[in-house]
Design a protein that fits this description.
By secondary structure, the protein is mainly α. Helices cover about 35% and strands about 10% of the residues. The protein has two helices and two strands; from the N terminus they run βαβα.
Length: about 70
């Protein structure tokens, strides 16, 4: 038996009506490249740095403006 696993699509989120995604031997997941331990650590550091920057200088870089 042959199968395929898809993690990245040309358009995110993908068109779930695509025959390939619905094929019984295809497993598709949301983009999970950032789910490694290293990537999660890097994101945590970046978020912490952005929070510190905001409280030190009032710079909301990386923050969604409607949350402020």
């Amino acid at each position: 038996m042959r199968a395929a696993g898809l993690d990245v699509f040309e358009t995110e989120p993908p068109d779930f009506g695509l025959g390939l995604i619905q094929h019984p031997t295809v497993v598709s997941t949301p983009h999970l490249g950032a789910s490694t331990e290293e990537a999660q650590q890097k994101v945590a550091v970046q978020i912490a740095e952005q929070i510190v920057e905001y409280f030190k200088r009032g710079n909301p870089a990386g923050l969604l403006m409607h949350l402020l």
